[in-house]
Amino acid sequence: MGELWMMGGPVLWVILCFGIVGFAVFVERSLHLHRARIRGEDFLNGIQNILRRNNVDEAMTICEETPGPVAHIVRTAIIHRQDDKDSLVKAVDDSALGEISRMERRLVVVSIVAQVTPLLGLLGTVLGLVEFLLVMQQQLPLVQSADVMGAMMRSLVSTGAGLSVAIPAYVAFNLLVIKIDRIVLDMDKAGSEIVAFLSVLRNE
Fold first, then answer.
1. Which of 8, 44, 119, 140 could share a disulfide with 157, CB 3.0–4.6 Å?
2. How far is Cα 152 from Cα 145, in angstroms, rounded to an integer?
3. Residue 196, Cβ density class (10 Å: 0-12 exposed, 13-18 middle, ≥19 buried)
4. Whether the Cβ atoms of residue 187 and residue 99 lie closer than 8 Å to each other
5. DSSP readout, the chain?
6. Cα separation of 56 and 170, whole Å?
7. What CA–CA distance (Å, rounded) separates 104 from 98?
8. Neighbouring C-beta atoms of residue 163, cutoff 10 Å
């Protein structure tokens, strides 16, 4: 395996660097999204029970101590609870957009790794083929098989490395997108429910 890496040339090391960066971002984002998702329904029921007792400070404290965008959206709604419904909805929507932006931070890095590494592998293949043709041209009619095979191996290793990094990166990107979509659904549900609850509570 070590010989293959050495044979791949500089393009292979660039692909490896892309792969390491993509993996690091995937792990960091996965941990962040795992912490961000909570049991939204249980959390919201608890906050509503506290607000029914008119204990706003306790509700705010719980929201501040609870990680994740759902808690942040609920906290924003509580802050704007005295606003008219349109202003309240706008505040919640703006808060949700900010949370989505935070969740998607650095996600583009994984996408770039998935898109660029196959192209780098193709570049390595082209360079290997160019080297192969140069060797053929320089050594004709007595071509050394070792030189020719070395050029061909470099081209094939680059292609394999590019795909080996790109495929997991593509899967990782889609896994992160799925996790974000699930949290967004929780955010939408929590936002709608807390707005409706506060509207009813204010009119009581």
1. 8
2. 10
3. exposed
4. yes
5. -HHHHHHH-HHHHHHHHHHHHHHHHHHHHHHHHHHH---HHHHHHHHHHHHHTT-HHHHHHHHHHS-SHHHHHHHHHHHTTTS-HHHHHHHHHHHHHHHHHHHTTTHHHHHHHHHHHHHHHHHHHHHHHHHHHHHHHHHTTS--HHHHHHHHHHHHHHHHHHHHHHHHHHHHHHHHHHHHHHHHHHHHHHHHHHHHHHHHHHH-
6. 45
7. 10
8. 15
Rounded-to-integer distance, Cα 115 and Cα 51, Å: 49
155 close to 125: Cβ distance less than 8 angstroms: yes
Rounded Cα–Cα distance for residues 22 and 168 (Å): 10
Parent domain of 102: 2-203
Number of Cβ within 10 Å of residue 25's Cβ equals 22
Place of tokens 């290793």: 157
State both tokens at 113.
């790794």
66: left (phi over 0), alpha (psi -120 to 50) or beta: beta
Q: Give me the number of domains the chain comprises.
A: 1
pLDDT digit string, tens, across residues 4-58: 555 667 888 889 899 999 999 999 999 999 888 888 788 888 888 888 888 888 8
**Per-residue pLDDT reduced to its tens digit, 54-72:** 888 888 888 888 888 888 9
Rounded CA separation 188/73 (Å): 9
